[in-house]
TrEMBL record:
<feature type="binding site">
    <location>
        <begin position="35"/>
        <end position="39"/>
    </location>
    <ligand>
        <name>NAD(+)</name>
    </ligand>
</feature>
<comment type="similarity">
    <text>Belongs to the NAD-dependent DNA ligase family. LigA subfamily.</text>
</comment>
<protein>
    <recommendedName>
        <fullName>DNA ligase</fullName>
    </recommendedName>
</protein>
<feature type="binding site">
    <location>
        <begin position="84"/>
        <end position="85"/>
    </location>
    <ligand>
        <name>NAD(+)</name>
    </ligand>
</feature>
<feature type="binding site">
    <location>
        <position position="316"/>
    </location>
    <ligand>
        <name>NAD(+)</name>
    </ligand>
</feature>
<feature type="active site" description="N6-AMP-lysine intermediate">
    <location>
        <position position="117"/>
    </location>
</feature>
<feature type="binding site">
    <location>
        <position position="115"/>
    </location>
    <ligand>
        <name>NAD(+)</name>
    </ligand>
</feature>
<comment type="function">
    <text>DNA ligase that catalyzes the formation of phosphodiester linkages between 5'-phosphoryl and 3'-hydroxyl groups in double-stranded DNA using NAD as a coenzyme and as the energy source for the reaction. It is essential for DNA replication and repair of damaged DNA.</text>
</comment>
<feature type="binding site">
    <location>
        <position position="138"/>
    </location>
    <ligand>
        <name>NAD(+)</name>
    </ligand>
</feature>
<feature type="binding site">
    <location>
        <position position="175"/>
    </location>
    <ligand>
        <name>NAD(+)</name>
    </ligand>
</feature>
<feature type="binding site">
    <location>
        <position position="292"/>
    </location>
    <ligand>
        <name>NAD(+)</name>
    </ligand>
</feature>
Amino acid sequence: MSVPSTIQQQINTLRQELNKHSYNYYVLDAPTIPDSEYDRLMRELETLEAQYPETITSDSPTQRVGGQALSQFAEFVHKQPMLSLNNAFSQEELNDFDRRIREKLNLDSIEYTAEPKIDGLAISLHYENGILVAAATRGDGTHGEDVTQNIRTIKIIPLRLQGDDYPAILEVRGEVYMPLAKFNAYNQQQKQKGERVFANPRNAAAGSLRQLDPRMTASRPLSMTCYGTGIIEGGTLPDKYSDIVACLKRWGLPTSAYFKVVQGAQGCWDYYEDLHKQRAKMPFDIDGVVYKVNSNKQRDIMGFISRAPRWALAHKMPAQEVMTELLAIDIQV
Ligand code: NAD
């Protein structure tokens, strides 16, 4: 079946739009539309591409992770790609995710972990013999920005791990973010000085971390929560992610106080409802919950699609943001 030209035209327009917004968001840290609108455009493109698979190209926004790295930073190549997450917007989509995993693993029930999806930016930390030697942004998933000097200014990130049972080479991944109270206080201060404010905590974190002068980053109140590992050499980690999180905590790395092991789709849903109720009182901005298959052996069987693992799901919460004041570019380039 050939693709009607009106459909191809619609697809091209959506791709152009999404690429433009992706650039504003990831490269400039200055989005011009709400995330919910971006998600809606992405869904529209995904639906059309699912109907007409022959239109899918490797450079389509549906196949790509994030944006490109800023050339002002040294490039950092991720040996293990930093991927995105598949999204769900309803309980039905969560149940579909669980059903696909149960069918593939041939199990009646799956053990998952659940944790908040903090709205910040993904960072990879590299420890060698317990010493922080490098840190990088996700970039396009393979090519990130080397932000080692800036990361070293964030006090919650240990420069040296505690204990002595960590792998010789350990890559830890997590989200750098600006706590809400600090974000509000920072914007208030900026307003009083008549200076630029950040559009939301996500842009505040990304704009603050991607400064060419680490002293600027040091002056911004950033924090981090770790949610996974990457390259491991010269040692092993437990099979279960929940046990790995316990190791990270023991080694002095910041982990989520909201992290929980849950059973099956119902356990995931209960966690989601509970966190949704707590959302307004949480000390940081979240845009959903992330569920992950707990066992790494099971994750290996599930594998990946081009831009996301099949064993994890970001269950989005309804948007809270209002795009009122937009930040002009806050990167010293
Ligand atoms: P994503 O934000 O949906 O999910 C992947 C990211 O989640 C990871 O890279 C990581 O940084 C983060 N994350 C937070 N907590 C996590 C946890 N506990 N475990 C694992 N990962 C965790 O995907 P994405 O590809 O980074 O970005 C897509 C989103 O960005 C869209 O949903 C859209 O809302 C937003 N966006 C908005 C615009 C805009 O113009 N407003 C443009 C581009 C993208």
